[in-house]
Protein: Or 3'-5' exonuclease KapD
Organism: Peribacillus deserti
Amino acid sequence: MEVDHQYLFIDFEFTMPEGKARPEGFYPEIVEVGIVSVINDKITRRFSSFVSPERFPALTERCKTFLNITQEQVNGGMTFRDLIHLLSEFEQKHPGSTIVTWGNMDMKVLRNTCLKADVKFPFSGKQLDLSMEYKRFFGDQNQTGLWKAVQEYGKQGTGKHHRALDDALTTYNIFKLVEEDKRYLKKPEPTTIGDRIDLSKVFDKFAL
C-alpha cells in the first residue's frame, strides 16, 4: 500500500426483480452500503447504512429473502443523494483514493444510478476489481465468489455474507492476504554459501 494513500473498500447490496422478467425500466439500485477506509495499513473509518431506492422503492420478496433485510430497514435508510455526498467527502479528504471492490457490479451500479439521478460520480482515482486481481494472481479460469476466495485462504469471512460492511471488511482482509503473497513472490531467493564464496579457491587452497 502507498504511504498516506487512502484505500476505500466498498460493498453495495442492490435491489433485484422478483424473477427473470424485469419490470419496465428496472435497474438495480443500492439498498445498503458498507465502507472501510484504510490509510497506512490501518482502518481509519467504517461506515454502514441502508439506502432507500428511489425508482423502485418497494423491495421484492426475492430481494428481502436473499439479503435478509426488511422494507422498514430500507425505508429508514439514507437517500441516494446523501450517499453520494458521503462518498464525495471521503474523496475530498483524500483525492484520488483507490476504490477496491469485489467484482465490477458495485461501481457499475453506482455509476448508472448517478447517471439516472443526474448527479456527479463521486470518485476520481483508481478503481480496483479485487476479484479479477485474485483470478489473475492464482490463474483461475473462473471468477471466484468473495467468501469462497477467503475460504480458499483457510480463513473465514467477517460477519455475515451479503451484509455490506461485513463484505467490505472481508474484501479488505483478502486484499491484505493477496498483497502479502505478492510481496513474498517478489523477494529474491536467499543466497547460498556457495554464492557468497568462490568455493573453487577454497578447494585450491586445501589442495596445496
Residues 6-207 form a domain with the Nucleotidyltransferase; domain 5 fold (CATH 3.30.420.10). The radius of gyration is 23 Å. The chain is about 45% helix and 15% strand. The chain has a mean pLDDT of 86.
